[in-house]
Amino acid sequence: MQSQIEVKINGKPRAFHQTLSIDQLLSELGYKDHFVAVAVNSQCVLRKNYGTHQIQSSDEVEILAPMAGG
Amino acid sequence: MWTLADKKVNSRLLLGTARFPSPSVLQESITASGSDVITVSLRRESAMENANGRFWDYLRESGAHILPNTAGCHSVKEAVITAQMARELFGTNWIKLEVIGNDDTLQPDPFATVEAARILIHDGFEVFPYTTDDLIVAQRLRDVGCRIIMPWGAPIGSGQGLRNIESLKTLRRRLPELTLIVDAGIGAPSHAAHALELGFDAVLLNTAVALARDPIGMARAFKAGVEAGRIAYESGLMESSSRAHASSPTVGLPFWHHEQTL
């Protein structure tokens, strides 16, 4: 039996069937080219680590995208 | 060409990308402004909305340098992590540092701005701090390693122009070694020209172009204003005087002038 993990994505609770990398998380959420910035528990994650950084239960994940700004 | 941080750029107009009526108008406005540097922000966006990729494609096609901002941050911690995320996303160490201290005036928090600047410079960033026209704050920013300072002309989005010209003149006079960019409050090309006439190296603006009836035309007008202001500064403005001075020669006046004085 797989253990479920519960995390917060941009402030909203989400559950997944297993731990997953940031790349897997972004695919799961539908970010096609993964052109977003990610922080986990208020720590910026380097893009080169998206494939290896594993999301753990209770993690708070922030996903930010480019937006118009002044 | 002039040097902004580590880059050679042509234009002295930095343009924000918010509040434009459409992406195509934004694109054409960037082109019309001649700007080499455009600002962007980072925000939460769901994959379903899927607009981020397209927005980024538009900007990438412009060929301009990207200056990400930390707009909306109210603490050192928020600003630092936002800057780090921007660096990862955009592949630039440039960051327009904004730490807001008051939500009504959007006045920067000078203490948090200086502390965030110190941390970010230590982390390898080129920090473009948004600040007020206060000399001491600007000196503190310089002391922690900022090579560029961006004092406001007036509150963000107000369009009031340069509200405190004497303070801005003082900044320019006392900080000759720094790149000074008037950021915020500029509402008209004449305001931008004035900033350049005072010796500021550039201006950063957004709303005045984005909310114009014809943003592309206004971008062109700002381009001309900035260029005029810089040429005027380099050419040397005349000293103002409290007395009138006739510009036409007074010798050789015709006889009726002499009769009036008899």
Commentary on this structure:
The complex is a heterodimer of chains A (70) and B (262). Chain A has 70 residues and is mainly β. Chain A contains 1 helix and 7 strands. Chain A has a 5-stranded mixed β-sheet with strand order 2-1-7-4-5, with no helix packed on it. Chain A is globular and about 45 Å long. The model of chain A has no long low-confidence stretch (mean pLDDT 92). With 262 residues, chain B is of the alpha/beta class. Chain B contains 10 helices and 12 strands. In chain B, strand 1 and strand 2 form a beta hairpin. In chain B, helix 1 runs parallel beside helix 9. Chain B is globular and about 85 Å long.
Features:
heterodimer; A: two-stranded antiparallel sheet; 1 helix; 7 strands; globular; B: 262 residues; alpha/beta; two-stranded antiparallel ribbon
Which overall shape of chain B is indicated by the principal axes computed on the Cα atoms?
globular
| Poorly predicted residue ranges of chain B | none
The fraction of residues in strands of chain B falls at: 15-25%
Strand share of the residues of chain A?
35-45%
| Largest sheet geometry of chain B | 8 strands, parallel
Whole-number radius of gyration of chain A? Answer: 12 Å
Structural class of chain A, by secondary structure, is mainly beta
Q: Termini of chain B, distance in Å?
A: 59 Å
Q: Output the strand order for the largest sheet of chain A.
A: 2-1-7-4-5
Secondary structure tally: strands of chain A = 7
The largest β sheet of chain A comes out as: 5 strands, mixed
Helix-strand string of chain B: EEEHEHEHEEEHEHEHEHEHHH
Q: Characterize the overall form of chain A.
A: globular
- What does the radius of gyration of chain B come to? 21 Å
**Unreliable runs of chain A, pLDDT <50, ≥5 residues?**
none
Return the average pLDDT of chain B rounded to an integer: 94
Major sheet: arrangement of strands of chain B: 5-4-3-12-11-10-9-6
Which structural category fits the helices and strands of chain B?
alpha/beta
Mean pLDDT of chain A: 92
